[in-house]
From TrEMBL:
Pathway: Glycan biosynthesis; glycogen biosynthesis. One of its GO terms (molecular function) is alpha-1,4-glucan glucosyltransferase (UDP-glucose donor) activity. It comes from Martelella mediterranea DSM 17316. This is Glycogen synthase. GO terms for cellular component: cytosol. Residues 2-236 form the Starch synthase catalytic domain. Belongs to the glycosyltransferase 1 family. Bacterial/plant glycogen synthase subfamily. It comes from the Bacteria. Residues 289-442 form the Glycosyl transferase family domain. It catalyses: [(1->4)-alpha-D-glucosyl](n) + ADP-alpha-D-glucose = [(1->4)-alpha-D-glucosyl](n+1) + ADP + H(+). Synthesizes alpha-1,4-glucan chains using ADP-glucose. ADP-alpha-D-glucose binds at residue 15. CDD domains: GT5_Glycogen_synthase_DULL1-like. The lineage of its organism: Bacteria, Pseudomonadati, Pseudomonadota, Alphaproteobacteria, Hyphomicrobiales. One of its GO terms (biological process) is glycogen biosynthetic process.
Length: 483
């Protein structure tokens, strides 16, 4: 089976979040099920530099939103790629979506509309000798793909749209609509119109044959006003086509037994190697050298991630005897709050603003616990990395966090099933209570080691989830009338 995946980022070439990890890992996992995936991505400078002279031109699009663009094919780290080489749209250094001042590029509608249009053309056999059986689009940046497919004159192929975070919808003024090249009737309730605007995500949700989210709990949550971000009515109406499939991680990249970015390798069977990594984390973040538990954060510092809640209880964490390391960037006020915490609690709190892939591995390998107090979390990968590395996740009971972490309640502890700590609601008092529970568990070394080992044995790979995607692909393929 041949699948065209469409994504605005892909690991290891270009990454701002979990979308890139999924786009990079899922095609590799699907190969075991007889599914060959080619992924269409924008030709950002980092992508073009990485592929170098390995790419070959397969087609030229002479009028893609007023620009001439080439589609290149290349193979990189086991991934079969199609690269949309359109310098006027994508030859911009830095963040793929945001201008240097931090706001989204004013022509993002054009940039990612072009990505979707190119994908729809490829779906309609634009590449000689290769035609996909199904198209899988990711998030709002690729969400016009099923829209173009629906309104094209050619027979429609099955399409899937995966929502990685429904808060990001790609909503634009209706003045852009004439430039999209869609028929007039597409600007309607069963097309891209959404409360007087053009919405890429809403259009994709309306027209894709199936919708997936990145965890079963999130699939249910987005059908409610609390989490649906205004789209809950449409999603509820299409509930029979909505599937929650939890993300996995690349267990070759994230494996403490083989990870060459950490100080000392270890495994669930030989966990003592964590000690040297723990010492390295303490030295890197300037912490006191004692046995008190090291809590960690590797995250965007934003309201969604509950970082304001954590900032409010740093004093409680320290007073309970804990230490905290923070690695991340985000809202300026939250960055400053954690910088101030490090200044106010020297030796107990360490903060590094920014993101470093190697350091994130070190934190997972050396910290005792990781805090994920998200207000909503479609899936979350941080807690999966933590499970893999024996770093106990302390998570809000929402989305994929609720689906992947087994709370250390008495019943779970009694049968040695617990892998972390869940809490709810996302309020300072509740998080503070969860931190106290975690410290009590840490003080019981036998229980703590059992939780670490149980977490490290959890199957956080793509194997099971890729199987669910493969089943869904095949169900949709059977819906197509074959000659």
């Amino acid at each position: 089976m041949k699948v065209l995946s469409v994504a605005s980022e892909i690991y290891p070439l270009i990454k701002t979040g979990g979308l890139a990890d999924v786009a990079g890992a899922l095609p590799l996992a699907l190969a075991a099920y007889g599914i060959h995936t080619r992924t269409l991505i924008p030709g950002y400078p980092a992508v073009m530099k990485a592929i170098g002279d390995k790419a070959e031109k397969v087609i030229t699009l002479y009028d893609l939103f007023g620009e001439q663009a080439n589609v290149l094919e290349a193979r990189h780290d086991g991934l079969d790629l199609l690269i949309l080489d359109a310098p006027a749209l994508f030859n911009r250094f830095g963040n793929p979506y945001n201008a240097p001042h931090g706001e989204g590029y004013s022509d993002n509608w054009r940039r990612f509309g072009a990505l979707s249009k190119a994908a729809a053309d490829i779906a309609a056999s634009a590449i000689p000798g290769w035609e996909p059986d199904l198209v899988h689009a990711h998030d709002w940046q690729a969400a016009l793909t099923p829209v173009y497919m629906r309104f094209a004159p050619t027979p429609e192929k099955p399409s899937i749209l995966t929502i990685h975070n429904i808060a990001f919808q790609g909503n634009f003024d209706t003045g852009i609509f004439p430039w999209l090249g869609l028929p007039d009737h597409a600007l309607a309730v069963d097309g891209v119109e959404y409360y007087g605007k053009v919405s890429f995500l809403k259009g994709g949700l309306q027209t894709a044959w199936a919708v997936t989210t990145v965890s079963p709990t999130y699939a249910r949550e987005i059908q409610t006003p609390q989490y649906g971000m205004g789209l809950e009515g449409l999603i509820s109406a299409r509930a029979h086509t909505v599937h929650g499939i939890v993300n996995g991680i690349d267990t070759d990249v994230w494996d403490p037994a083989t990870d060459d970015t950490i100080v000392s390798r270890y495994s669930a069977h030989k966990p003592k190697g964590r000690v040297e990594n723990r010492q390295a984390v303490g030295e890197t973040f300037g912490l006191d050298n004692d046995d008190s538990p090291i809590f960690s954060v590797v995250s965007r510092l934003t309201w969604q991630k509950g970082m304001d809640i954590l900032a409010a209880v740093v004093g409680d964490l320290v007073a309970m005897g804990g230490k905290l390391v923070v690695l991340g960037s985000g809202e300026p006020g939250l960055e400053e709050a954690f910088r101030n915490a490090a200044r106010y609690y020297p030796g107990r709190v360490g903060t590094i603003i920014g993101y470093d892939e190697k350091l994130s591995h070190m934190v997972q390998a050396g910290a005792d616990a990781i805090l994920v107090p998200s207000r909503f979390e479609p899936c979350g990968l941080t807690q999966l990395y933590a499970l893999r590395y024996g770093c106990i996740p302390v998570v809000a009971r929402t989305g994929g966090l609720a689906d992947t972490v087994i709370d250390a309640n008495p019943a779970a502890l009694a049968v040695n099933a617990a892998t972390g700590v869940q809490f709810s609601p996302v309020e300072p008092w509740s998080l503070s209570h969860a931190i106290r529970r975690t410290i009590n568990l840490y003080d019981d070394k036998k229980t703590w080691l059992a939780m670490q080992k149980q977490g490290m044995k959890s199957d956080v790979s793509w194997k099971a989830s890729a199987g669910l995607y493969a089943d869904l692909y095949k169900q949709l393929d059977l819906m197509v009338s074959k000659p």
